[in-house]
Design a protein that fits this description.
The complex is a heterodimer of chains A (about 300) and B (about 170).
Chain A (H helix, E strand, L loop, with lengths): L1 H25 L3 H6 L23 E4 L14 E11 L7 E12 L2 E4 L1 E7 L4 E11 L5 E11 L4 E12 L1 E7 L5 E2 L9 E4 L5 E4 L7 E5 L3 E3 L6 E2 L4 E4 L17 E2 L6 E7 L7 E10 L8 E2 L9 E5 L1
Antiparallel strand pairs in A: 1-2, 2-6, 3-4, 3-7, 5-6, 7-8, 11-19, 12-19, 13-18, 13-21, 14-15, 14-20, 16-17, 16-19
Chain B lengths: L1 H19 L2 E7 L7 E4 L3 E12 L4 E9 L4 E3 L3 E4 L3 E11 L8 E10 L8 E16 L4 H29 L1
Parallel strand pairs in B: 2-9
Antiparallel strand pairs in B: 1-3, 3-7, 4-6, 4-8, 5-7, 8-9
The chains are: A mainly beta (about 300), B alpha+beta (about 170).
């Protein structure tokens, strides 16, 4: 009986203690009121807001591998499309869309992508549709990809893919050439350094070929008396004109002598790829041979003997 | 005043005619001087070059001649025509490397030139492209034969195990 009463007392005491402690914790000013001599509350209520910062760095999951080779298009741009997938384990809301940067580069040349259409894949991942316009004159070879993105805590996630794609070589030029034939005034045997009267030939680069121009020349045959020739090796070319010795005639200085019949020669004239990719070719007969008086031309031998201005 | 107007109209028409007559032709190469093709001895590969005619209003016909590498490379034909505004005219070059080919690399060179109309004058000018690249040959990896050797050994061990198992059971 005595034990029962004692048990009830202990339970009641415990219950009271819990209630008292609850009042203390729930009402922050309860103990203050007790111990404050003025009996007034020592503090006011406050609004409390808690912001939890994300701890994860965003990652770029895609692209993760190289794509197929890209082919340039004459005098135009070609779009390289790809999808970027960003994952942030702090949730997609933590990704700052506007900080997404995707670039391809080769050497010092860089092209920046336009990325649109952010789409949530799941709670942590978001995809973007990206596109880069490659110019027809952009250099052939391997292009690297760099992608970066920031989250709300300005943590930066990035990926760098070497040789993301190969940009193919497009050797293209405006055809027909302008002019498509060359004319000289009447020539005197033994005369030197005689310029064409309707040059230069304008070679407009419509691709990304970055080398020099090759010229394959053929001997000119007499139109009246077949079997008489002005050799191709009597001609020279240059990229400029003018001067006491015309620049296109000054072989070894500013001009290059053409090869023998059908032999290609590197003119050393740059094909100048770029938005204004133009090269000029000026022509000269450095020495008029002592041949009979008649018209000499390439057409005597047929269209297969037209001189060929070529890339490569 | 009338004369000036007449000349202005003529100039505009001439400019439009000149712009309209511009064409461009080009060859797309998957391999070039600085970008060689790697092949194995005994391998065959078709390299597709593409003829583009994206600018202008005329079809373009080209003649193709293989200048170097004819011992391993061959063309189906020598004349190709690209229709206006197309880029899908393919010039296939088949490369067959014999098992016992003696070289470690071979240069392939292909001349492409437009088929010209005679335009008169002393010298008629045509256009062209020379496409050249190296083919580098590598020994084929012996991964396949290694796999067969391993599989054979496993099979032998299995057969031996079965034989031993059968012998032991018979003795009992």
């Amino acid at each position: 009986m005595c034990f029962m009463k004692r048990g009830i007392s202990v339970k009641l005491f415990s219950l009271s203690l819990i209630i008292l402690l609850s009042i203390c914790f729930v009402s922050a000013g309860f103990l203050d009121n007790i111990f404050n001599p003025s009996g007034k509350a020592s503090s006011d209520t406050q609004d409390v807001s808690v912001s939890v910062a994300g701890t994860h760095i965003p990652s770029i999951d895609e692209p993760s591998a190289s794509i197929a080779a890209v082919t340039p298009s004459e005098n135009n741009t070609v779009a390289v499309d790809f999808t970027v997938v960003v994952t942030d384990l702090d949730g997609v809301a933590n990704i700052v869309d506007s900080t997404l940067l995707a670039q391809v580069s080769r050497g010092a040349t860089m092209r920046t992508a336009t990325c649109i259409n952010p789409t949530d894949i799941d709670a942590d991942s978001r995809s973007y549709d990206c596109s880069i316009d490659m110019n027809y004159y952009d250099e052939a070879g391997n292009w690297d990809l760099y992608v970066e993105v920031e989250d709300q805590e300005t943590k930066v996630g990035s990926v760098n893919l070497l040789a993301y794609f190969t940009y193919n070589l497009l050797a293209a030029m405006e055809v027909p050439l302008s002019p498509s034939n060359l004319i000289w005034d009447t020539l005197t045997p033994g005369a030197i350094n005689q310029n064409s009267t309707n040059d230069p030939t304008v070679v407009t680069n419509m691709g990304n070929y970055a080398g020099t121009i090759t010229l394959t020349a053929y001997d000119l045959e007499g139109e009246t008396t077949a079997g008489e020739f002005i050799p191709a090796s009597d001609f020279s070319v240059g990229s400029t004109t003018g001067g006491a010795t015309p620049a296109e005639c000054d072989v070894g200085v500013t001009a290059v002598a053409l090869g023998g019949d059908g032999n290609p020669v590197d003119t050393l004239i740059n094909a100048n790829p770029g938005p204004v990719g133009v090269a000029n070719i000026y022509y000269c007969i450095t020495s008029v041979p002592f041949v009979s008086s008649q018209v000499y031309s390439t057409s005597t031998r047929g269209p297969a003997y037209a001189w060929v201005v070529s890339y490569g | 005043m009338k004369n000036k107007l007449y000349f202005a109209i003529c100039a505009v028409f001439l400019a439009v005619a000149l712009v309209a007559s511009i064409s461009a032709a080009g060859i797309v190469s998957p391999y070039w001087k600085d970008y060689p093709l790697t092949m194995n001895y005994g391998e065959t590969k078709i390299v597709n070059f593409e003829l583009q005619n994206m600018v202008g209003d005329k079809d373009i016909t080209v003649e193709v001649v293989l200048k170097q590498g004819g011992d391993i490379a061959s063309l189906e034909k020598t004349t190709y025509t690209a229709k206006v505004h197309t880029s899908d005219t393919v010039i296939p070059l088949t490369i067959v490397v014999p098992e016992d080919y003696s070289k470690s690399f071979q240069k392939i060179e292909m001349d492409v030139k437009t088929v010209n109309e005679d335009t008169g004058g002393m010298v008629t000018l045509g256009t062209g492209w020379t496409t050249s690249f190296n083919v580098i040959f590598e020994e084929q990896e012996s991964g396949t034969s290694f796999t067969w050797i391993v599989l054979g050994l496993i099979l032998v061990v299995l057969i031996l195990g079965i034989v031993i198992f059968v012998l032991i059971r018979r003795r009992r």
